UniProtKB/TrEMBL annotation:
Gene3D superfamilies: Tetratricopeptide repeat domain. It comes from the Eukaryota. InterPro entries: FKBP4/5/8-like (IPR050754), TPR-like_helical_dom_sf (IPR011990). This is Rotamase. Coiled coil: none annotated. It comes from Elysia marginata.
Length: 181
């Protein structure tokens, strides 16, 4: 984030966040996922700039400013939470489109989105499939249970169940071999 952004008011920062989010959305529609991710990342930097003025955002980002700073209005706090969820969630979506997704980072971004919107279906789905690809099938299944049920959620849930069943069979076979003499 450039240093001039720290001199912006919270309203101006929110406008910048909306602007970068829209640029990201446009790039995503064009399937330019790197450009979209960069725009969402820039929006997130401005979101972090809000944290010194908003205790809720400070808790989310781990950043705090002087206690004497003016707080944002409740409407601005709500908008910043929605933008936070959207930008982290959209960044996770872009990262899943990479040739070699970094699933741990996708999960981190989904967790940030879920901190402000715990029942966000897209974040739950993206986190669930990331856990699946990391081989954490039970955790993935638990997360996917909270996502809105659709064909892709059912498909990954079924894949998780099949992999868990396979792991159980392998463990049973291993234990059976250990205790036979």
């Amino acid at each position: 984030m450039d240093t001039s952004s720290t001199k912006l008011t919270d309203s101006e920062k929110l406008a910048k966040i909306r602007q970068f989010k829209e640029k990201g959305n446009a790039a995503h529609k064009e399937e330019n996922f790197k450009k979209a991710a960069w725009s969402y990342y820039r929006a997130i930097l401005y979101i972090k700039g809000l944290s010194s003025n908003c205790p809720d955002m400070a808790d989310l980002t781990g950043m705090r400013g002087p206690a004497t700073e003016k707080k944002m209005s409740p409407e601005m706090v709500e908008e910043s939470k929605k933008l936070t969820c959207d930008c982290y969630n959209n960044l996770a979506a872009c990262m899943l489109k990479e040739a070699d997704p970094k699933y741990e980072r996708v999960i981190e971004h989904c967790d940030k989105a879920l901190e402000v919107s715990p029942s966000n279906g897209k974040a739950l789905f993206r986190k669930g499939i990331s856990l699946y690809f990391l081989g954490q099938f039970s955790e993935a299944l638990d997360v996917l249970k909270g996502a809105p049920q659709g064909s892709e959620v059912r498909r990954y849930s079924d894949l998780c169940k099949a992999r868990i069943k396979q792991q159980d069979k392998e463990l049973a076979h291993l234990y059976k071999g250990m205790f036979q003499s």
